[in-house]
Every structure is written in structure tokens, then in C-alpha cells.
Write a structure and sequence with these properties.
Layout lengths: L8 E6 L4 H16 L7 E7 L5 H14 L7 H5 L2 E5 L5 H18 L5 E5 L6 H10 L9 E5 L7 H14 L5 E3 L7 H11 L13 E9 L8 H26 L8 H14 L8 H4 E7 L1 E3 L2 E3 L17 E6 L11 E6 L6 E8 L6 H5 L11 E7 L3 E9 L7 E9 H5 L6 H11 L8 H20 L5 E4 L6 H8 L12
Helix pairs in contact: 1-2, 1-13, 5-6, 6-14, 8-14, 9-14
The chain binds nicotinamide-adenine-dinucleotide (NAD).
The site of nicotinamide-adenine-dinucleotide (NAD) has 20 residues, from helix 1.
Length: 498
């Protein structure tokens, strides 16, 4: 592998004792190491408040990797690249110490001043940290400097703008990598390949042949111990503004002229500008919200949202959202993009269903019109998680019976065909950042426009006196979500059957 593909980098990890670092970041960096994508010339400086030392951090990194069930042969060697710095984000001396430590380690590990600052802590500190990094000269190294920002990027447009202005004081747009981990998922990245590398789909990818597109990201878990955070967020901000909208953009953008960062981003931004804005007055026509009540999941009784820890017993925070987006351009006019997400639903699943239009005249429907017609709309299903694959639903002949049809499934599953676990989203994204490839990160224009789209809906909901629709835990959301599609003559396809 060329030097370009084994970047020599220091990663400064703000939030090294946190949940994200433990569950996602350490295992991902380790995978990059054992698959040869990191040279030996790398260090991670873990930063947090606790008075840990290098050894405590290394013990925790080792534990995180063991818990992720990764092979541990190279773990000792790997952990020797980790260093810890107790830190107070508001104290300038902390940044001076960091700069000094970076310089020492860069000399020791022969790293040419390339620095990634990974913000894996509470977002209220992102702006302060960025500014202090600049003011104390940490970003004035000989190599490149990049800032990785976790979600949430603001909680509405004004707060996102404020945060952006703060980080832009210290970093240029092309140094900023806003993480949307859905963009690192194997099958989300596959959307572009399916669309742009297959002669059979691109000619049909428009309002003449597609009737609607459905995107679901459902979880079985409740808010767990994140009730405090969730109360200030809710499903619309936590999932729709970023992950679901990004999937809509990848499904709807025009083909980029090249697979270059700027070209892909410009197509995404162009289509985002065509998404119909929804005023607060119209919010209920396009979006519905729900909150889980007590119920049974996998034979276990689970409490309702309002009884969860750190949740207001009269909370109106939505744990479920279902909505319709219209894209007013030539390709998509008249085709609804339905999105749906929630906690405590019947299954954990992220799937995209592309429903094609019926033929103008189908001789098999005519023949069967007295019986219950068995003609099934053609569907392309993209399985994002936990399964990864593609299913195409066609109509075939029912064996032995002349003139009768039956839905036929053509299935491709990554795990069963390739027999390998695909890399974690974070693994790809950290590697992309090291290589300076920002294609799968959100540009400020995307964040800006997506908040502008979402804000009127959240404002309508926070101003509303109506009680929030309830759904029983273990179901696919409130009945209102079904009605949203019924109004247009559609239905949510049952995910377990696809
Ligand atoms: P966490 O509360 O588990 O960890 C926060 C970390 O920040 C800890 O290491 C803590 O010591 C450190 N910290 C807090 N205040 C500090 C201060 N004043 N000075 C120095 N260090 C300080 O949080 P988390 O779940 O790891 O999430 C971190 C970020 O990642 C958040 O922005 C969150 O929204 C985002 N995120 C988390 C997940 C996840 O799965 N946990 C997923 C997506 C995004």
C-alpha cells in the first residue's frame, strides 16, 4: 500500500472516556490498524476530564476491543500508540499542554504534524474547543489539521449557524468533517452504485416509473439511559434532519459528473433545494409524530416513554416520526418520499423500498379481475441494517397454473454471499478523514438547508396544544402513520416480508 493509503496521523480524541469512544471509535481504529490501513506512525491522544493516565486509557481501549469481539493478537502493539491527557476544555493551559504533547509524540513517532481533532463529547463544547485550538497555536502544525464533528450539529438552524460560525473561526470548510454515520454504512454507500452503475435502474429512476419511495429506520430499543438528551432532541432532530434526509438525497440526486467530493455534494445540495418546504401551518399534512406507550417486546413488558429515567412524566417529545417529502423538480414531481423512524418499534431495521408504477395495462390483472389479483407492484428493496443486501420483487408464473402469477423475490445478501462482516461505518469515515476525502460527510450547505426544512415542523409541534399520538411499544407506530400513506393511495410495505 502506498504511503498515501497509510496516513501518518495524530488523532486528538475529545471525549476519550465516553460511550462513543468505547463502543465505536476504539474498535474502528483497531480494525484500521489490523487491516493495514494505519501505518505504525500514528498516535491517539485521549482527552477527557477524568484524572486517568496512559495505562488506564490503554486498559480501557483493550477492554473495548475485547467487548467488540475483535481478534486481539496485535492489541499490545496497538495500545502503545495511545496516550492520555486530563483536560479542562475552558482552560488555555490544557491546550498548551496538548500542543507540547503532540510535538513530543510527533517527533517520537515520526508524524509530520498531521492532526485530526475528533469531537466526541457534549456539543456545547465544540465551538470553544475549536477556537481555543486555534488561539493556542495547536492548529499551526507543519502538516494538515482536520476537525471531526459528531452529531448533533445544532438543534435548530440558529444554533447550527452559531456553532458553524464558531468552528469556522478556526477551521476552513474543507478542514471540517461533519459526521453522519449513516453515510459510512455499506449499503447507504451502495445506493449510488445501484443507481449509477446499473443500466436497468437509471432509465426508470424518475416520476414516470416510480410511484413512491419509503425509508424506514426502526429501533426496538427505547431511550435507555439517554432520556435527558432525548428530551431535548426527539426523533425529528435526532434522525430525520440528518440520517433520513441524507438517504433521501442519495436516492434522489442527479448523477454527478464525477465521483468527486464537490460534484457529489453539489448534486445533493441541488436536490435538497428542490425539496418542498413545509410551513408550520402545513406541518400536520406532511408529518405526524408519536410517542411509545408501555407494551411487550420479545415477550418482555417494557415501560412507556413517560416512565423512562430522566423523562418528564408529561413529555410531548416524539419517539416516532413519519413524514412525506415532495421534491419539486422534473425528475421527481408527484413522487412522495415517505420517511419513518422510531424507538420501541416491532423490529430493528433500516430499509428503503422503491415502489415502481403499475403497467398502464396488465393482461394478467385483466385475466384475474374476478379473482383477487395476484399482480404485485415491482419493488426494489435496499436492506441497510441489520441485513445488508438488495431484493427485487417481480411477478412470475405460478407453477403449473396457466395465466396465474406469483411475486418472485430476487435476493442478494452481502453477509451470505461474501461471508464477511462489512466494516463499521465509523471505520470508513475515520479512514476517509485521514485520506482527506470529505464526500461522505455533511457540507455546511446541507446542514443549513436541512435545518431550514425541519425547523417549521418542530416549531409547529412545540406550539401545539394537541396531545401526542401514542403507539404501543412493539408496533410500527401510531395509526396516523398508516393514514399518511392511505391518503395518497399507498401503504407501508411490511418490512418483515421484504
Ligand atoms: P458521553 O457522555 O458518554 O461522553 C462524553 C465525554 O466527554 C466523556 O469522555 C467526558 O469525560 C468528556 N467530557 C465531558 N465534559 C468535558 C469537559 N468539560 N472537559 C473535558 N472532557 C469532557 O457521550 P457520548 O455518548 O460518547 O457522546 C459524545 C458525542 O458523540 C455527543 O456529541 C453525542 O451526541 C455524539 N454521538 C454519540 C453516539 C453514541 O452512540 N454514544 C452516537 C452518535 C453521536
Amino acid at each position: 500500500m502506498s504511503e498515501n493509503h497509510n496516513p501518518k496521523t495524530s488523532i486528538v480524541l475529545f471525549g476519550a472516556t465516553g460511550d462513543l469512544a468505547k463502543r465505536k471509535l476504539y474498535p474502528s481504529i483497531y480494525n484500521l490498524y489490523i487491516t493495514g490501513k494505519l501505518s505504525e506512525q500514528f498516535v491517539v491522544i485521549g482527552i477527557a476530564r477524568r484524572p486517568w493516565d496512559d495505562q488506564t486509557l490503554r486498559d480501557n481501549v483493550r477492554k473495548a476491543i475485547e467487548e467488540a469481539h475483535l481478534p486481539t493478537d496485535n492489541i499490545e502493539q496497538f495500545c502503545n500508540h495511545f496516550f492520555y491527557l486530563p483536560f479542562d476544555v475552558t482552560d488555555t493551559k490544557s491546550y498548551q499542554r496538548l500542543n507540547q504533547r503532540l510535538q513530543e509524540l510527533e517527533t517520537e513517532f515520526h508524524i509530520p504534524g498531521n492532526r485530526i481533532y475528533y469531537m466526541a463529547m457534549a456539543p456545547e463544547f465544540f465551538g470553544t474547543i475549536a477556537i481555543q485550538l486555534k488561539n493556542e497555536g495547536v492548529t499551526q502544525s507543519d502538516g494538515w489539521n482536520r476537525l471531526v464533528i459528531e452529531k448533533p450539529f445544532g438543534h435548530d438552524l440558529p444554533s447550527a449557524q452559531k456553532l458553524n460560525n464558531e468552528i469556522r473561526e478556526a477551521f476552513t470548510e474543507d478542514q471540517i468533517y461533519r459526521i453522519d454515520h449513516y453515510l459510512g454504512k455499506e449499503m447507504v454507500q451502495n445506493i449510488e452504485v445501484i443507481r449509477f452503475a446499473n443500466a436497468i435502474f437509471e432509465p426508470l429512476w424518475n416520476n414516470r416509473h416510480i410511484s413512491n419511495i419509503q425509508i424506514t429506520s426502526s429501533e426496538v430499543l427505547g431511550v435507555e439511559d439517554r432520556g435527558g438528551y432525548y428530551e431535548t432532541s426527539g426523533a425529528l432532530r435526532d434522525m430525520v434532519q440528518n440520517h433520513l434526509l441524507q438517504m433521501v438525497l442519495l436516492l434522489s440526486m442527479d448523477p454527478p459528473i464525477r465521483l468527486a467530493t464537490d460534484e457529489v455534494r453539489s448534486e445533493k445540495i441541488k436536490v435538497l433545494r428542490a425539496v418542498r418546504s413545509i410551513s408550520s401551518e402545513e406541518a400536520d399534512d406532511y408529518f405526524i409524530r408519536g410517542q411509545y406507550d408501555a407494551g411487550t417486546i420479545q415477550d418482555h413488558q417494557v415501560p412507556g416513554y413517560r416512565s423512562e429515567k430522566n423523562v418528564n412524566p408529561e413529555s410531548k417529545t416524539e419517539t416516532f416520526v413519519s413524514g412525506k417529502l415532495m421534491i419539486d423538480n422534473h425528475r421527481w414531481a408527484g413522487v412522495p418520499f415517505y420517511v419513518r423512524t422510531g424507538k420501541r418499534m416491532a423490529q430493528k431495521s433500516t430499509k428503503i423500498v422503491v415502489q415502481f408504477k403499475d403497467l398502464p395495462l396488465n393482461v394478467y390483472t385483466q385475466k384475474n379481475e374476478k379473482q383477487d389479483s395476484s399482480i404485485h407492484p415491482n419493488l426494489l428493496v435496499i436492506h441497510i441494517q441489520p441485513d445488508e443486501g438488495i431484493t427485487l420483487i417481480l411477478n412470475g408464473k405460478k407453477i403449473g397454473l396457466l395465466g396465474e402469477t406469483i411475486p418472485v423475490k430476487l435476493d442478494y445478501s452481502h453477509t451470505s454471499v461474501d461471508g464477511v462482516n462489512t466494516p463499521e461505518a465509523y471505520e470508513r469515515l475515520i479512514y476517509d478523514c485521514m485520506l482527506g476525502d470529505a464526500t461522505n460527510f455533511a457540507h455546511w450547505d446541507e446542514v443549513n438547508l436541512s435545518w431550514a426544512l425541519i425547523d417549521p415542523i418542530s416549531e409547529a409541534w412545540s406550539d401545539s396544544n394537541k396531545d401526542i399520538a401514542k403507539y404501543e411499544a412493539g408496533t410500527m407506530g401510531p395509526i396516523e402513520s398508516e393514514r399518511l400513506l392511505e391518503k395518497d393511495g399507498f401503504k407501508w410495505w411490511p418490512l418483515e416480508k421484504l
